[in-house]
Design goal:
The complex is a heterodimer of chains A (405) and B (185). Chain A has 405 residues and is an alpha+beta fold. Chain A has 14 helices and 8 strands. Helix content of chain A is 57%, strand content 9%. In chain A, β3 and β4 form a beta hairpin. In chain B, α2 (66-81) runs antiparallel to α3. The longest helix of chain B has 57 residues, at 3-59. Chain B has helices spanning 3-59, 66-81, 85-106, 110-114, 116-151, 155-161, 172-179. Chains A and B meet through α4 of A and α1 and α5 of B.
Chain lengths: 405, 185
């Protein structure tokens, strides 16, 4: 059945093909503008070359680039056992081959994303703010959504689409700058009489193309990204059997005014909720990388009888008020009702740990501090250049041994 | 021979590849079912391993709850020695019940509730219970995909030829749990 969810790429692939067409067209006309005979071919070759180079880089390093851009730090099991447990739970539910690497972003704004190449090499990252705000079921909902991106191969697909967008923007920039600089030279006027007419036509089309294609490509990118978000919601709740967890997590994430500091237009699409908040945007429907959060919550909350794909599809249609094909016929065949489960008991700490503390601990752990937890519950942090092998607890006086890492 | 012969050979080779493709898909699915099954066992064992620690940690605080602690130990022993799937289901259900009771009692001991060790164990046991449930769910999902593949045309022909048998859903435990009185946390 996951294969079926995966095969629901027809529409996404259609949109993706549109992007490639834009790229090829841009290369064709931009090349033709410089030389009507050999130019179009050279232009297309250059465009494809650019695309393939970027593709290779992002295939092998896309995940690490994304993690580095967001400032995510790898965490160990003892740093946040609950996060690890929940990721393990979802790994088991999704039958993934290996546990994704787990990262925490030392930021206050609650958000999360998944990245990587395939289920064997994937990573999930959550912000410290998310960890400090969500209870167990909510965090589980978010992690399930991210795992669904891994399971549905969205992580690679979105990288592919993002790279194509990048290539188009780059190419149109090169062309427009080239035009601007060579415009004053007499290159075109000195051309032979025969080629002049064709070059002028090419030039006109190329300029229009260069201006429009990045915008078009971005709209396509947004459309693909929105589809994948809905599908990840559907797959996620099928894993947890508990739509309320994700719904209330989304609600908490949408209610905050905090924004991520390290995010850009391309990376924004990867997050579970749009990290770029724009107030009072009416055009948001077309240019948003994410569906409106209120709509996602509404769909999730109307899943009261079952959480299989058919149920999500139905809820999706009733909330949006028109028939839509979010999930393909094949994916709907898991018709055996998938029942909801009861909420689980929260075993969080008695007092919620503030996000600043989680973030601070993370930065300390990342820079080599050793953590010692005393029997009385006090957590002591020793710097990497600490040379002793025992430490007296300042609260209860017990001497704890320090295991130098 | 000649052209027609070559075409026939070509078609034959393509057909062979197609059969191999479906056969491999079936094998992959069957292995996923097996793997999902072993996940359940791994988590059950993990739960058994955690319980002695839990007893050790709580013993000092819950001096008046000897009976509860003994029940947990007994349920663990019973669960570990259970053999058949039915027995296992029954015993594990019992274990879940008494553990729930233990945590409910622990609520009355503020010192214990603040104990880091206890909190860590509680998180581990809660997660293990979840993992058992998710492993079961994952197993049933895998069985569903596998059985669908076996029943659907054209893979059903190849499944029949190589004797891929249908797998059973893991539902017995659900029944056993339903029969047990639910202990509220």
């Amino acid at each position: 059945m996951w294969e079926l969810a995966r095969s629901n790429k027809r529409k996404s692939i259609f949109l993706f093909a549109g992007m490639l067409l834009l790229l090829v067209g841009l290369g064709f006309f931009a090349g033709g503008a410089f030389d009507p005979q050999a130019g179009p071919f050279l232009g297309v070759t250059l465009a494809m070359f650019l695309w393939i180079i970027q593709l290779i880089i992002s295939y092998f390093a896309g995940g690490s680039i994304m993690l580095a851009l967001s400032g995510a730090k790898p965490v160990t099991r003892d740093m946040h056992p609950r996060l690890f447990n929940i990721v393990e739970e979802m790994k088991i539910a999704a039958n993934l081959p290996v546990l994704p690497k787990i990262y925490v972003i030392p930021e206050e704004a609650p958000n999360a994303f998944a990245t990587g190449r395939n289920p064997q090499k994937s990573a999930v990252a959550v912000t410290a703010g998310l960890l400090s705000r969500l209870n167990r079921d909510e965090l589980q909902g978010v992690i399930a959504h991210e795992m669904s991106h891994v399971l549905n191969r969205d992580i690679l697909f979105m990288t592919l689409v993002g790279v194509s967008l990048g290539s188009i923007v780059l190419l149109s920039n090169i062309f427009l700058r080239g035009m601007f600089h060579s415009g004053s030279s007499s290159r075109y006027r000195s051309r032979g009489k025969g080629g002049g007419q064709a070059a002028l036509i090419f030039l006109a089309i190329a300029i229009v193309f260069a201006i429009l294609s990045p915008i078009m490509a971005q709209l396509l990118y947004f459309a693909i990204s929105r589809r994948r978000e809905y599908l990840a919601d559907a797959t996620g709740v099928r894993l947890t059997r508990y739509p309320e967890g994700l719904a209330s997590a989304l609600e908490k994430m949408s209610r905050t005014d905090l924004v991520l500091s390290r995010v850009n237009k391309v990376t924004a699409a990867l997050y579970i909720v749009n990290p770029l908040k724009r107030k009072g945007m009416q055009l948001a429907d077309l240019t948003a990388t994410h569906p409106p959060i209120s709509e996602r919550i509404k769909i999730l909350r109307s899943l009261t009888y079952g959480v299989n794909f058919a149920a999500y599809q139905k809820a999706f249609e009733s909330v949006r008020g028109r028939p839509a094909s979010l999930i393909p016929k094949g994916g709907l065949s898991d018709a055996a009702t998938v029942a909801l489960r009861a909420p689980s008991k929260d075993t969080g700490p008695v007092e919620p740990v503030p996000a600043q503390r989680i973030a601070g601990d993370l930065i300390m752990a990342a820079s080599g501090f050793t953590f010692v937890t005393c029997a009385c519950g006090l957590k002591m942090k020793t710097p990497p250049d600490f040379r002793g092998n025992s430490l007296r607890c300042p609260k209860c006086g017990k001497v704890n041994s320090v295991n130098a890492a | 021979m000649g052209k027609i012969g070559l075409i026939l050979i070509g078609v034959g080779v393509l057909f062979l590849f197609w059969v191999i493709g479906i056969f491999n898909a079936l094998v992959r699915l069957r292995n996923q079912v097996k793997n999902a099954w072993s996940q359940i066992d791994v988590q059950l064992k993990r739960r058994h391993d955690l319980i002695p620690n839990l007893i050790e940690t709580t013993k000092g605080y819950m001096k008046h709850e000897r009976e509860t602690l003994e029940k947990v130990t007994a349920a663990r022993t019973a669960a570990m020695s259970a053999q058949s799937v039915g027995e296992k289901a029954q015993a594990e259900g019992m274990l879940s019940g008494v553990l729930g009771r233990l945590f409910a009692v622990a609520e009355q001991y503020p010192d214990l509730k603040a104990n880091q060790n206890f909190l860590a164990l509680q998180e581990e046991l809660t997660s293990t219970e979840n993992k058992i449930a998710f492993a079961r769910q994952g197993y049933n999902d895998q069985v569903l995909f596998y059985n669908n593949k076996i029943q659907m045309f054209p893979s059903n022909i190849i499944a029949g030829m190589f004797g891929f048998a249908q797998q059973e859903f893991f539902e017995i435990q659900d029944q056993a749990e339903k029969a047990l009185p639910k202990v509220a946390f």
